[in-house]
Amino acid sequence: QVQLVESGGGLVQPGGSLRLSCVASGSIFSLLAMGWYRQAPGKERELVAGITTGGSTNYVDSVKGRFAISRDNAKKAVYLQMNSLKPEDTAVYYCNAVRKAVTGTSNYWGQGTQVTVSS
C-alpha cells in the first residue's frame, strides 16, 4: 500500500510561481511512475505532468515551458514547479502513483491540494 501526501498549494497572483510536493509512504517509490493531475470546477480531471521510473517526463500542452516535474527517489518525493501561472491553472491538484507488476496495475491518489491563481 502507498499513501501520498501533497503540499504546497495556495493563492498566487497571475505570473507567480508555486512548487507542489508529494511525499509517498512505503519502500517501493523507485518502482512507481508518478504524475500530477488537476481538476477544475465543472471539468474532468486531466493529467498535467508525468515522470517515469527512469525519469522521462511528459506534459499537457497548456503547461509546456511553464511547469516542471521532478522526483527524488531518496526522499520518496515528486515535485511540480509551476511558473508563469495563469488563472486557468486554478484547480485542485492531485498526486498520482502507478505501479505495474505481473499481478496487475495499482493506482494511488493523494488527497489533493488547491491552487488558486487570481489577482
Please summarize what this structure is.
This protein is mainly β.
Any overview of this molecule?
This protein is mostly beta strands and about 120 residues long. About 0% of the residues lie in helices and about 55% in strands. It has strands spanning about 5, 10, 20-25, 35-40, 45-50, 55-60, 65-70, 75-80, 90-100, 105-110, 115. The strands form two sheets. Strands 2, 4, 5, 6, 9, 10 and 11 form a seven-stranded mixed β-sheet that branches. The protein has a four-stranded antiparallel β-sheet with strand order 1-3-8-7, with no helix packed on it. A hairpin with a 2-residue loop joins strand 9 and strand 10 (about 105-110). The relative contact order is 0.32. The mean pLDDT is about 95.
Q: What structural class do the secondary elements suggest? A: mainly beta
Instruction: Write the element-wise H/E pattern from the N-terminal end onward.
Output: EEEEEEEEEEE
The count of helical stretches stands at 0
Most strands sheet: 7 strands, mixed
How far the N terminus sits from the C terminus, by CA atoms, comes to 40 Å
State mean pLDDT (0 to 100 scale). Answer: 95
Low-confidence stretches: none
- Percent strand equals over 45%
- CA radius of gyration: 14 Å
| Outline type | elongated
- Helical fraction equals under 10%
Number of strands: 11
Layout: helices, strands, pairs:
Blueprint: E1 4-7, E2 10-12, E3 18-24, E4 33-39, E5 46-51, E6 57-59, E7 67-72, E8 77-82, E9 91-101, E10 104-109, E11 113-117
Parallel strand pairs: 2-11
Antiparallel strand pairs: 1-3, 3-8, 4-5, 4-9, 5-6, 7-8, 9-10, 9-11
